[in-house]
Structures are given as structure tokens and as C-alpha cells.
Amino acid sequence: MKHISILVPQGDSSLSNLEATHKMFNMANDFLLRMGREPLFKTQLVATHKDARLSNGIFTIIPDATIDEIKDTDLVIIPAIHGDYKKVIETNKDFIPWIVQQYKNGAEVASLCIGAFLLASTGLLNGKNCATHWIAADEFRAMFPNVNLVDDKIITDEHGLYTSGGAYSSLNLNLYLVEKFAGREMAVLSSKVFEIDISRNSQSPFIIFKGQKSHQDDEILKVQEFIEANFHEKLNVDDLCSEMALSRRTFERRFKKATSNTIVEYMQRVKVEAAKKELESGRKNVNEVMYDVGYNDPKAFRDVFRKVTAMTPLDYMNRYSRLTAGV
């Protein structure tokens, strides 16, 4: 039997993460029993001390055990914890050595959404890929520069460490773990019962690109503002270099350091974000939107749009257009 420790952190933790994760693994046990098989999971809510309580004013969660009582576990699951990320880590720092020790003992560790901040604070993610909510990407990169944040991904899986994208994409990671431990048949059954798209693998369609502007490079900030004000033009990297009076190599290095994007990636993401807003309004067709954001090659526009959003412009419009939705 697989022992699963779902952490009950102090602070404003996601009760939906805790409840949904607990229910999905226990529901898998119910399915197994109905099939005449033995249950596979023992799921416990684990806190740092006996008096820990988690409440959002509506529901209260009482842990089953403390970290001192759990000597061995097979899987540690860290839910999302909201608030100032540095304070969240400080408040829950007693979990950190326990998580590290469990991992060294052979346990696997999964973080849901912004629970990645607590997992990254253990150092276990250094040099590895990690997903979290796209809205927290800039802060995550600033706090954990040694972790490779892939903010478009729904799930990462590296050496027994799992992370998920934002909000309810944690359900996809839960399904992934059910499949890993209980098999594909059980994961498909769970996806049908909970009505979760088992094939979803990207949070790109949901990302709202704001640009990383919390850096201190004023010249790069001016370039970002110029790109965002002139997205409808066909921008040229060499022209921007000339404006900056910098070599292309130096300019690109500074830009990537400040924004976590290459110049070309930044220009593409700004143009695609503008295109998304136009497509959502439904006032123009795909070709009109393409011209408005500075493209004249339908294939090039489609390829860039798909790279950024994991959808074609037409698919995006059909899904999110106000006119399609009857708004």
C-alpha cells in the first residue's frame, strides 16, 4: 500500500487542493474495491504539530498526524499556500528538513500550483524543471534562479519530484499520479468520474503575458515599453540594438537577464497577447487580427501563436470569443 502524506501548512492554504487530492486517491481505493481488488492508497493529512488547524472561515481541516509521527511515506503532496511567499516559507520552514529526509529515504514529492515555492525552498528542485501558476512566474524566478521554471507546463516529472501548473491544473497532476501508481485504466476512470481532461498538458492558453518588469535595468525597460507600444509594427532586433548603442550580443544578454525572454520571444509574446485580446472580442477574423499585430504571413502567425498558446488562432477564437459565447 502506498502511503500518501498531504501536508497541512500554516497560513492561507488551498482547501480545494487538499479536499480534491484526498478525495481522488480515496475514490481510487473505492473503485479498486468494487473491482474486487485491494485498496492501494493510505492517505493522511500531515501537519508540523498536533494543534495545527487549517480554516478558511467556512471549513476547518484537522490533520491526521504530525511529521514526527510519520517516519516513512511514499509520496508527499504540498498544496498551494497563498500570501507573501517568503513569509509562507518562513512560517512552514519546519516542513523543509522533513521533506528532504523523506525524499532521501525514497519518497517522491509533488507540489500543487504555488506549493512549488515551498518545494523549491528545500533545494531539491535546483537544476530541475518546475511548473507553478503562471501568475507567480516572475517572483518564482527571482527567488529560485537555480530552478528551471517552465511556466507553460501543466506537469513536470523529474527524479521523483512532480510539480503542477496553476489552480485546478493540480487535478491533472493528481490524475498523473493515480496513473503512475494504479495504472492507466484507473486514471481514465477517475478522469471520467471527476470530468477532468486527462490529455491536457499545457497552461499556455490561460497565460496573460505582462512582461517581467521588476528588474532594475532602465534601458531594457524602455525597450520593453517601446515594443509594447509598437506591437503592430514589424520590429527589427538590429534597429533596437542601434537605438541602445549596444552590440546585439550584449543587448540580447542584458534583455534575457532582465526579462527571462529573448528579444524575439518577447516581441512574439507581446504580439500574441494583443492578438488574443482581439480574437476574444470577436470583432475581426483571424487574418485581420494577424495584420493588426504586424504579421502578413498566415503560416508564420499561426506557428508563433501556437508556440505561445498551444492553440491555433482559430481554435483560440472559437473557444474564447465573446460572440461565440453569445456575450
Helix content: 40-55%
Number of helical regions = 14
Q: Would you identify the regions where 5 or more consecutive residues have pLDDT less than 50?
A: none
Instruction: Give the averaged pLDDT, no decimals.
Output: 89
Radius of gyration over C-alpha positions, nearest whole angstrom: 22 Å
> Alpha-carbon distance between the termini?
50 Å
Number of domains: 2
Instruction: Based on the coordinates given, report the CATH architecture of the largest domain.
Output: 3-Layer(aba) Sandwich
Structural class: alpha/beta
CATH topology of the largest domain: Rossmann fold
Instruction: Please report the first level of CATH classification, the CATH class of the largest domain.
Output: Alpha Beta
Q: Please state roughly what percent of the residues sit in beta strands, choosing from under 5%, 5-15%, 15-25%, 25-35%, 35-45% or over 45%.
A: 5-15%
**Tally of extended strands?**
13
What's this entry about, in short?
By secondary structure, this protein is an alpha/beta fold.
Q: How would you describe this protein?
A:
There is one protein chain. With 327 residues, the chain is an alpha/beta fold. The chain is globular and about 65 Å long. Helix content is 46%, strand content 13%. The protein folds into 2 domains: 2-206, Rossmann fold, CATH 3.40.50.880; 218-320, Arc Repressor Mutant, subunit A. It has helices at 15-34, 85-91, 95-104, 116-120, 137-143, 170-182, 184-194, 218-229, 237-244, 248-259, 263-281, 286-292, 298-309, 313-320, and strands at 2-7, 12-13, 41-47, 54-55, 60-61, 65-66, 75-78, 81-82, 108-111, 129-130, 148-149, 155-158, 161-164. The protein has a 7-stranded mixed β-sheet, with helices on both faces. Strands 2-8 form a two-stranded antiparallel sheet.
